[in-house]
Amino acid sequence: MSRIAELTSLLMPHLMLAPIGLPMLTAALLLTMKEEQQRLKLGLNILSTLLGLLVAVALLLWSHESGAPATMGVYLPGNWPAPFGIVLVLDRLSAMMLLLTGFVALCSIVFAGARWHRAGVHYHTLFQLQLMGLGGAFLTGDLFNLFVFFEILLAASYGLLLHGAGRTRVQAGLHYIAINLAASSLFLIGASMLYGITGTLNMADLAQAIPQVSAADRGLLHSAAAILATAFLIKAAVWPLNFWLVPAYSAATAPVGALFALMTKVGIYTLLRLWTLMFSSEAGPSSLFGSLWLIGGGMVTMAFGAIGMMASQRLTHLAGHAAVLSSGTLLAAAGFGQNALTAGLLYYLPSSTLAVSALFLLADLIDRWRNDGASLAPYELDDVAPFLTPELMPTTGLNLDEDEEVLVGRVIPAAAAFLGLAYMACTLVIAGLPPLSGFIGKFAMLTALINPLGLGSSAGTQPGLPGWTLIALMIATGLLALLALTRSGIRHFWAAHDRPTPQLRVMEGLPIAILLGACVALTLQANGVMRFTEATANGLHAPGTYVRAVMTAAPIPGPTTTPTPERAESSATTKAAP
Questions:
Q1: Residue 452 above 50 pLDDT?
Q2: How many CB atoms lie within 10 A of CB 381?
Q3: What are phi and psi of 88, to 5 degrees?
Q4: Tens digit of pLDDT for each residue in 169-227?
Q5: Does the bond joining 81 to the residue before it have cis omega, within 30 degrees of 0?
Q6: With helix as H, strand as E and coil as C, how does 279-311 read?
Q7: For 374, phi and psi rounded to 5 degrees?
Q8: Which stretches make up the NADH:quinone oxidoreductase/Mrp antiporter transmembrane domain (predicted)?
């Protein structure tokens, strides 16, 4: 790993352009190719996404160098110093989000390669543009460029949502487009107000300017921040602004739904980034502004997501509400502004995202297996135990062994066993049950709420009403999620159906196995991952390092030419002239 970090250091800071430039160039190349060249397009898409994932791994290792409290990468694309020019910033948080994006994207495109990428035109181009927008949103250090990358990823998501056509997708797509256009308008209004008050849109410069805002403009500043936050809360699926998410995500094709599981995390990332910069404990009168709104909104969103899971019958709706539940948990935990709690939520964030993405992919395979192409197959009474008579006695001549004795149960095909085990793993992670990473993430957050100063140092410290409420909600919503997923699992796996053995391709099963294998890896490497998230949380809640790194980044001096004697004499004469 040290060799990778050393090699990355030689390529820095220019390597930071790769998460943006690589998918942009790939999308341009794919756009020039004919639709008949689907296999070549798929190969280029997978290769580009894999290279992007490797770059993300290198950037993560570089950002977490051993012994370094905070390793920052700052790149000035226009060679203008902040806050006058565009700036890209890499720290542990942005590197983690890039790695998560590359990982989920690679699994999504491999799954799509089995069938879904042929359902419409320009799928691969839109997919790469989506990755470009996500990479830019995680790396940019400027609000205006954040808006630009938001629009890129949203424009690509419109096309991906409509991929495959159909009335349901068109209807959900129109709602999705309308709400995101409204969010973009709020983004522009809030950013414009902030610029009018502070005179800057650079995030690091905003962190310096906000404590200096006059008392007369403080209310206007808070209003601008609230309008801007509303745009991000829409993307983070906070209640009641999340009415669009479940219909849109469930209408999308399975690989698109898996990729969209990242979209809510873009809103979470942006809120966490801007809130810790603009309204940190060093923001003067605006310190921790909006924390109660984040906590309250997150808690209500958690309740909405859990109730929605209980009310859902379709697996895609379950996955959509699970994404809402995860988002609400992250928002509520972020609002407390505690280092240990933030470290726990940063561990929980990739775990929940991976599980929800895997559930979207599983939903496609399970529905195809059970429904034989129908949108919703009815449940019959004889589905409960087809090997029993109406009197609940074994059916004669059915399922007998060599001695003509009735066997209890049947041999489970390997494909069905894989789907069942994968579904169980998703259930454990989403519900937060041991032994997988979802439990560790929730346990870390619960521990931080009860012992905010650490074990042995929090005697007499109480979580307070918000803390106890979040503790109760995390336990209760986990139980409701478990009940909802278990009920659905019984219907699809336990109750036998007269159906053939599921047809499972390697390109469909492998991405699901990799996503859930990553959750297992997070569990096995929990100690190292938690150290990483603790360092990330400490850096977020002490934004001075971020601000200094951005504001002190110096442009590269231009090439100089050695003056000839005649030019030197002319220059000296000019300077000496009155």
A1: yes
A2: 7
A3: -110, 135
A4: 888 888 888 898 999 999 999 999 999 998 889 998 888 888 888 888 888 989 999 99
A5: no
A6: CCCCCHHHCCCCHHHHHHHHHHHHHHHHHHHHH
A7: -75, 155
A8: 141-371
Size (the chain), residues? 578
Distance between CA atoms of 449 and 296, rounded to whole angstroms?
Answer: 16
Whether residue 418 contacts residue 509, with contact meaning beta carbons closer than 8 Å, is answered with yes
The Cα 287–Cα 360 span in angstroms is: 39
Enclosing H/E stretch for 374: none
Q: How far apart are CA 154 and CA 157, in angstroms?
A: 5
More confident of the two residues 327 and 493: 327
Give 475-509 as a DSSP string.
HHHHHHHHHHHHHHHIIIIIS--S-PPP---HHHH
Number of other CB atoms surrounding residue 35 within 10 Å: 12
- Three-state SS for 200? coil
Whose CA is closest to 420, among 507, 516, 352? 516
Distance CA 147, CA 227 (A): 14
d(CA 108, CA 111): 5
In angstroms, the CA 431 to CA 476 distance is 10
Q: Could you give phi then psi for residue 388, rounded to 5 degrees?
A: -115, 155
Contact yes or no for 476/390 (Cβ under 8 A): no
- Token match 């397009």: residue? 41
Going from the C-alpha of 170 to that of each of 109, 284, 364, the distances in angstroms are: 22, 48, 19
DSSP state string for 560-578? --PPPHHHHHHHHHHHH--
pLDDT tops 60 at residue 548: yes
DSSP character for 494?
I
Q: Where are the beta strands (DSSP E) in 463-560?
A: none
Q: How far apart are CA 215 and CA 278, in angstroms?
A: 16
Q: Which spans in 312-436 are helix H? A: 315-334, 339-371, 414-431
Q: How many CA atoms lie within 13 A of 142 on its CB side?
A: 19
Contact partners, residue 458, CB within 8 Å, separation at least 6: 450, 451, 452
Measured CA to CA, the distance from residue 133 to residue 389 in angstroms comes to: 58
Spatial distance between the Cα atoms of 340 and 337, rounded to a whole number of angstroms: 9
Cα gap 40→43, rounded to integer Å: 5
- DSSP assignment of 114-136 equals TTGGGSSSSHHHHHHHHHHHHHH
Amino acid at 474: M
Beta bridge partners of 75: 88
What is the distance between the alpha carbons of residues 207 and 221, in angstroms, rounded to a whole number? 13
Helical ranges in 525-564 per DSSP H: 526-540, 544-551
509 pLDDT more than 90: no
Local structure of 394: helix, strand or coil: strand
Burial class (CB in 10 A: 0-12, 13-18, 19+), 216: exposed
Beta carbons of 426 and 516 less than 8 angstroms apart: yes
3-state secondary structure of 400: strand
Helix 263-278 / helix 315-334 crossing angle, nearest 10 deg: 10
Cα 28 to Cα 10, 310, 350, 455: the distances in Å are 28, 44, 30, 54
Tell me the pLDDT band of 475, cut-offs 50, 70 and 90: very high
